[in-house]
TrEMBL record:
It is found in: Membrane. It is a multi-pass membrane protein. Residues 242-441 form the Major facilitator superfamily (MFS) profile domain. The chain crosses the membrane at residues 12-30, 50-70, 82-99, 105-123, 143-164, 184-202, 251-273, 293-312, 321-339, 345-367, 379-400, 412-433. SUPFAM superfamilies: MFS general substrate transporter. InterPro entries: MFS, MFS_dom, MFS_trans_sf. Its main location: membrane. Keywords: Membrane, Transmembrane, Transmembrane helix, Transport. The keyword Cell membrane does not apply. This is MFS transporter.
């Protein structure tokens, strides 16, 4: 059925994926600087993962529900996925703008909770949109183009506080106050988030359900919250075997990246730069630098995705082999952070991480979209996201703190050793995926 869909041009795929630029601005600012905000407001390093917990907990509930609802939404003017893009963008923009103005830890944690939940309201329908509009032969290409846009967003957003400092915006503030450079960066990110999603809404048309009468009958037969929750639960219990196998890969991958987002700033500012006083110029300059180095993984993911998009548009690729190799390289990148002595070498480490990031954002979704019913693409994309948020919840509830101390020792830089180990395990977990119909384009 999906092969009857016409192939789209690069620019058509670009337009329908452009909203990911804003989504990634939100994620990059969140991942690169929320721990800095938490530290500025007085959080202890070991308490940082717990402050992140509300976001994945909410995602565990929100994403399958949003996917389910978007599958059952159709409006001749507003489409199926686009209403969710819009409302997610509105609340994400508000939360992103106000997050650095928090005056207490509970306010910052609340802003992160709203931001992450709202971004996910927009993000999961974006994943489903690619599967909605593209034939199976273009799925890898479509998800890789999304990853290209994500890479651009990651690099620019991660460097925004540093750019603001270079333009003369103050990079220090009184104890317990977030510097203006971070506030300006989050404000710019809020503008980009909303405007880029609005661009996709205005430039992209959605396909109506293939059989409108059947669509309306199914929607009428499954009204009510109980019916919806039952169907979501039924889909979870009957998920395709490939989805379960990919779930193991996702578990290790996202545990690793949650570890990085939670601990990269305190670990690297302390281990590489020797800065721990959050109100000092040394710490804030180091934190800006960490953000820039984190931007490297976004920049490299952009170029890696560009190369993948070129290859995927011209020949078949082995999705499993690409994903396994990319994750293992990223794992070695994390581990190298522990051993380097010069800050510039972080570019090498995060370049390897960027290869893994590009693959994480494209290959699992390409493999999944080839194995599920197109009519249930939204709900399955939402359920699949549970394999992203569950490891983050476990990590936030003490999994990171226990594992890095138990396996490697008390120093916070050991979190990067943990992240690397987990990413290598994620790569090796691809060996369990044996279905050639989803692993080969």
């Amino acid at each position: 059925m999906t092969e009857q869909k016409k192939k789209l041009s690069f620019w058509q795929i670009w337009n329908m994926s452009f909203g990911f630029l804003g989504i990634q601005f939100g994620f990059a600012l969140q991942g690169g600087f929320m721990s800095r905000i938490f530290q500025t407001l007085g959080a202890d390093k070991d308490a940082i993962p717990f402050l992140w917990i509300a976001a994945p907990l909410t995602g565990l509930l929100v994403q399958p529900i949003v996917g389910y609802l978007s599958d059952r939404t159709w409006h001749p003017r507003f489409g199926r996925r686009k209403p969710f893009f819009f409302f997610g963008a509105v609340f994400s923009t508000i939360a992103l703008f106000f997050a650095p103005y928090s005056s207490a830890l509970w306010m910052a944690a609340g802003a992160l909770w709203i931001l992450d939940a709202s971004i996910n309201v927009s993000m999961e329908p974006f994943r489903a949109l690619v599967a909605d509009k593209l034939p199976d032969s273009q799925r890898s290409y479509g998800f890789v183009v999304q990853t290209l846009i994500i890479g651009i967003g990651t690099w620019v957003a991660s460097n925004l506080p540093w750019m603001m400092t270079q333009l003369g915006v103050p990079n220090t503030a009184p104890d317990g106050v977030v510097p203006d450079s971070v506030k300006y960066a989050f404000g710019i990110g809020a503008f980009v988030l909303f405007s880029s999603i609005l661009y996709t809404i205005l430039t992209t048309e959605e396909y109506p359900p293939e059989d409108m009468e059947e669509f309306e009958r199914e929607k009428a037969a499954k009204k009510g919250a109980f019916s919806g929750m039952k169907e979501i639960f039924d889909n979870i219990t009957t998920m395709p075997k490939v989805m379960q196998q990919l779930g193991l890969v996702q578990f290790f991958s996202w545990f690793a990246f949650f570890t990085m987002w939670s601990f990269a700033t305190p670990a690297i500012t302390e281990h590489i730069f020797g800065a721990t006083d959050t109100s000092s110029a040394a710490y804030n300059d180091a934190a800006d630098s960490v953000g820039s180095y984190l931007g490297t993984y976004g920049l490299v993911s952009m170029f890696f995705a560009l190369g993948l998009s070129f290859v995927a548009s011209r020949m078949k690729i082995n999705r499993k082999l690409v994903h396994m190799t990319s994750l293992i390289l990223g794992g070695f990148g994390f581990i190298l952070i522990y051993f380097i002595k010069e800050a510039w070498m972080l570019h090498i480490c995060f370049s390897l991480v960027g290869i893994a990031w590009a693959s994480i954002l494209s290959m699992p979704y390409a493999m999944l979209s080839s194995s599920v019913d197109p009519k249930r693409m939204g709900v399955f994309m939402g359920i699949f996201n549970m394999f992203i948020v569950i490891p983050q919840i476990i990590a936030a509830l003490g999994g990171v703190n226990f594992l890095y101390k138990f396996l490697f020792g008390e120093e916070v830089i050991n979190t990067m050793l943990l992240a690397g180990t987990l990413l290598i395990l994620a790569g090796l977990s691809n060996l369990f995926i044996r279905d050639r119909s989803v692993t080969h384009d």
